[in-house]
User: What shape does this take?
Amino acid sequence: MPSLFHHFPEQPNSSECQSGYIILSNAHDAASSFLEAFTSVRASRHARGMPTDEEQDLLRAMLLFASAGLDSLVKQLVRDALPTILESNEQAADMFKIFVERRLRSGDDVNHKLLADVIGDREPRARLVSLQVSELTSSSLQSTDELLKAGAAFDIRSQEITNDPRRLTEIFRVRNQIVHEMDVDFTQPNRSRRPRPRGLMEGYTNGVFRVANNFLVGVNAKIPVQTPT
Assistant: This one.
C-alpha cells in the first residue's frame, strides 16, 4: 500500500543499503496499516471528538512500529555498510581507532585478554570491526544520544540526522512511555492513560521516518561508487 507518511525512502544505489531500505519500506507499510485501521474504525462509527483508548492504541502501535523500523534500519546498516565505509572514510576510521583504544583499556591498564584475543585472531582488524558492530547493535537505539553515536561511527554529522534533537528526544520519550509504562499517567489519581491525539501522533511518526530516511541517505552517500571494470 502507498505510505500515508512523508519521507518514504528512495531505493539506494549501494548494495550495502538494500536490506536497510527494505526494512524502512516495511516500517512505512506497517505504520500506514495502523493509521488506515484507525481511520476505518472511526468512520465506521461516525466518531467525533477524542478517540477512545482502543482507537488510540492503533496510533500508539503506529509510532512503535515506526520507531522499531528506525532501530532495525540503523542496526542493519551498521552490519552491512560500516565495514565498507571504514575502508574508505578517514573520519569513520578515526572514530574506529578511538573505539579500539577505549576497548583495549581496562582502567589505567591494558585489557590484556582482549589484546591477546585480537592478536591471536587470524584477522585481527576484522575482529575489532566485529566488536564495534556488536557494540553499536547490542542495545536499543531508542535515544537521541545512541542514534547520534551510531551516526558518528559512519562520519555522519548530527545535523544531517536531525536538525531538531530536542524534538527527537521528545518522540523517544513518548515511545518509552508507551512501551515501558503502557502509557499510564501515574500522576493522575485515577491512573488514566495519556491522551494521544491523531495529529500529534502522526507528527511524531513523520518525525521518526524523516530521521530514518536521513540516516539511510547519509550512509548510502558514504559508500564509494563502484565503477564498472
User: Anything to note?
Assistant: The chain has a mean pLDDT of 95. The first helix runs from residue 18 to 44. The beta strands are 105-106, 109-110. Residues 12 and 176 are 31 Å apart (CA to CA).
